[in-house]
UniProtKB/TrEMBL annotation:
Native species: Exophiala xenobiotica
Localization terms from the record: Mitochondrion inner membrane
Quaternary organization: F-type ATPases have 2 components, CF(1) - the catalytic core - and CF(0) - the membrane proton channel. CF(1) and CF(0) have multiple subunits.
Family membership: Belongs to the ATPase e subunit family.
Pfam families (UniProt xref): ATP-synt_E
Principal place of residence: mitochondrion
UniProt xrefs under InterPro entries: ATP_synth_F0_esu_mt (IPR008386)
Primary role: Subunit e, of the mitochondrial membrane ATP synthase complex (F(1)F(0) ATP synthase or Complex V) that produces ATP from ADP in the presence of a proton gradient across the membrane which is generated by electron transport complexes of the respiratory chain. ATP synthase complex consist of a soluble F(1) head domain - the catalytic core - and a membrane F(1) domain - the membrane proton channel. These two domains are linked by a central stalk rotating inside the F(1) region and a stationary peripheral stalk.
The name this protein goes by in its record: ATP synthase F(0) complex subunit e, mitochondrial
C-alpha cells in the first residue's frame, strides 16, 4: 500500500511541477512576443517620422543656390527671386 501512495505523491508532484513550468514558460514567451511587437511598432513610427521630416525638408527648405551655375530666377513673383542677382546678370549681359 505504501508503494502506491509514494507513486501517487510523485505523480501529483510531477503534475504540479509541469503546470508551474508551463505557466512560467508561457509568461516568458508572451513577454518576449510583446517586447518584439512593441519594438517593431516603435521602429515603424520612427521610420514614418523620418519620412515625414524628409518630405517636410524637401517641401519647406529653400533649394540649393543656383547662382553658380548661371540659372537665375527672373520671375519677380517667385518666392526665391533675388533682385541683386538679377540686376547683376543684366549688367553683365550689357
Amino acid at each position: 500500500m505504501s508503494t502506491s501512495q509514494g507513486v501517487n505523491v510523485l505523480r501529483w508532484s510531477a503534475l504540479v511541477a509541469g503546470i508551474f513550468y508551463g505557466f512560467s514558460h508561457q509568461r516568458t514567451i508572451t513577454a518576449s512576443n510583446a517586447t518584439a511587437h512593441a519594438q517593431a511598432e516603435y521602429q515603424h513610427k520612427a521610420d514614418l517620422i523620418q519620412k515625414a521630416k524628409a518630405e517636410w525638408a524637401k517641401k519647406n527648405l529653400p533649394p540649393q543656390s543656383k547662382t553658380g551655375s548661371g540659372d537665375i530666377i527672373t520671375d519677380p513673383n517667385d518666392k526665391n527671386f533675388d533682385l541683386e542677382a538679377y540686376l547683376t546678370k543684366l549688367s553683365a549681359e550689357s
